[in-house]
Amino acid sequence: MRINSVISLNEEHLDLKDAILLVTGISGAGKTEVMKALEDIGFFCIDNLPPSLLKDLVKLPEFSEDADQRVAIAMDMRSQSMFLELFTAIDSLQGSGNKNVILFMDCADDVLVRRYSETRRRHPMRESLNIYESIAIERAALSEVRERANLILDTSHMKSHELKERLGQLILHRDIELDMVVEVMSFGFKNGVPLDADFVFDVRFLANPHYDPALRPQTGLDAPVADYVFAQPEAVQLLDSIASLMERWIPMHAKAGKARLTIGIGCTGGQHRSVAIAKSLADRLDQKFNFVSEVHRDIRPIGSAHN
Q1: Which residues of the chain register pLDDT less than 50?
Q2: Is 302 a member of any domain?
């Protein structure tokens, strides 16, 4: 069976505020990857929930400190007979005034067969049937759910990072490339390079404020030190170069499925130059990306060590 690869929408505009997202569909179509992607973009996710428990979860967002906390629940044929209760549970939600949106995952039969062959997993409907018969039986059992779905997403020719990007467009109505968590970290090389840094920039070629007695007790977070650093044309050029590079390549990492990226800015002791550059870089990136933080790993009372 060949499925149209486009996304089907039963509603022109879907509003998930105060709604539960129900994720279901054909086994092997990618529900696990969808739940991982949803978790990355801020959903509270519950996998393989028996439908009869749906009514007990409608108040879950009320217990979250985040008033806009979104909830996604995956249900599939692994629950076997309990899955038959799904329609009753959905009708009960709607009857009590609780909103829900159904996302149905689909996939072409030949791709499903290949996936099961590669993973060697057992199809949940499989007994003495071959894999094609198992898929056909499951399609028949889920046909009504598919008809009632608000979203139908075919993953036949979709990679994991493409799936995450598409979900962001459909559910959050925005480009989630801008949602990557970007951490700008200052550090001192004398204390070691951060092991989790994806990019590392060495700023030790800049003149060192440590040698100015008035600046030595301060850090790059203090205006006199920052002014000293950025009075150097090379510091301004460096900041512009790093910012331009990151603005170009951060979205590329997001497209590849990366959810977090750390940029390390290092000087000798992690007190002056690296701190000033890291703070200004974080300020620049914060103008473009949604989740930017700055961390100054080695800021502490200044001793005799050079920065």
Answers
A1: 1-13, 302-307
A2: no
